[in-house]
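Encode chain A's predicted structure.
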Amino acid sequence: MSPLCIRMLLHYSWSPLDYHAEEDSAHARSPAVAEAMRAFLSSGLVTSRFTDLSWAVNQAPFIEEYQGSKVEKPIFTITDKGRAMVEHLCAVQVPVCKWIQPETEAV
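Encoded structure for chain A:
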């Protein structure tokens, strides 16, 4: 899982806002963010308010109104599976460096 995916998944675990709402436009509209959202949706880590997932990922976060109706936000919410993934990520322990004596060659 990339650092971006981890950041986005952590965001959805604690924020009531969409990830896009708290990021600058260039980052929020980046292909990497869209790809991560598609991956989250396909693996069941987040769910979308809309059934047209392509529209939900690529357009809905960036508009306020669509066909005369207000676009309700947040668009994406984390699922129980997503929360479990976050719990697993947070349970990973920090690696410990273990110093050893180098092997010596017999002279």
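The longest helix spans residues 31-43.
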